[in-house]
Design brief:
Layout (H helix, E strand, L loop, with lengths): L1 H25 L27 H36 L3 H15 L3 H11 L4 H28 L2 H8 L4 H12 L1 H24 L11 H8 L8 H31 L1
Helix pairs in contact: 1-2, 1-10, 2-3, 2-5, 2-8, 2-10, 3-5, 4-5, 5-7, 5-8, 8-9, 8-10, 9-10
């Protein structure tokens, strides 16, 4: 069953990942435009709202979504893990308050609203969108790291390591961090799905990408008026986004189940 779940997750995840990462290398010349929302005429998936080939747009449109989501997730944990570990292991209450209370302020603002507010003042590109999505995910991630690390930091083994003169780095990373790794792995699967949702929703609303960009989320938005005339322009990019999020969750679930049974 474990192998089956891994195989299913990889099979679902492989399609959007291959199209996203290798798609831009496989497209040829754009060719002449055809009438909007038509099927056939040498276009496998028909044409979009301005007569461009949908298959070509699909091959071009995944890299931004995938790379932005992965970069945002990595940046969020790059900040959240040190903050959470320091907060859990510091004996100084003021330092913990200084680190965690500003994050509580960010946590009080809905993520998408904060992205839209910042984007209305400073319109971001793809890099700016990744930074914004990472920023709104730091508070949640830091609190989860703090909770998981706090439970491990309260164990007698940590006090024994301190009495033996072990360095803070060895205690934080070698013991506390390893003890919280399973929790962080479970959170990573859910968070990446949430990040994909935010990136896709922001792109759907025109944040971080041009209105006519080759982007899966933008394709869903711009082509929805022709859904009942030429559905492939909406259905295919939407299914690829769904497959990406579903495959990520299944992969992490299978990995965690396997690790839990071994332990």
């Amino acid at each position: 069953m474990r192998r089956g779940r891994f195989a299913l997750a990889l099979a679902i995840l492989a399609v959007p990942l291959v199209l996203a990462l290798l798609g831009p290398l496989l497209v040829g010349d754009p060719g002449p435009r055809a009438p909007s929302f038509t099927l056939g005429g040498g276009h496998w998936l028909g044409t979009d709202f301005v007569g461009r080939d949908v298959w070509r747009q699909v091959l071009h449109g995944g890299r931004t979504v995938v790379v932005t989501a992965l970069a945002a997730s990595a940046l969020a944990y790059l900040v959240a893990v040190p903050v959470g570990l320091v907060s859990a292991l510091t004996p100084r209450g003021r330092l913990e308050e200084l680190l965690m209370r500003p994050l509580d302020v960010l946590l009080a603002v809905p993520s998408l609203l904060l992205i839209l507010l910042v984007a209305s003042v400073f319109p971001p590109g793809a890099v700016g969108l990744a930074l914004l999505v990472a920023l709104v995910n730091v508070p949640d991630a830091a609190r989860i790291v703090r909770a998981a690390a706090g439970e491990a930091a309260a164990r007698p083994a940590v006090e024994a390591l301190r009495m033996q003169g072990e360095t803070w780095w060895r205690i934080a990373v070698g013991y506390v961090g390893r003890s919280a790794l399973r929790t962080l792995a479970a959170d990573a699967g859910i968070r990446l799905t949430g990040v994909l949702y935010l990136v896709s929703t922001a792109a759907f609303l025109g944040v971080g990408v041009a209105p006519d960009a080759a982007d899966w989320a933008v394709m869903v938005d711009r082509n929805r008026t022709g859904l009942f005339v030429q559905p492939w322009a909406v259905v295919v990019p939407a299914l690829l986004i769904v497959a990406l999020t579903t495959g990520v969750n299944l992969l992490f679930d299978a990995a965690l189940e396997k690790k839990g049974r071994r332990s």
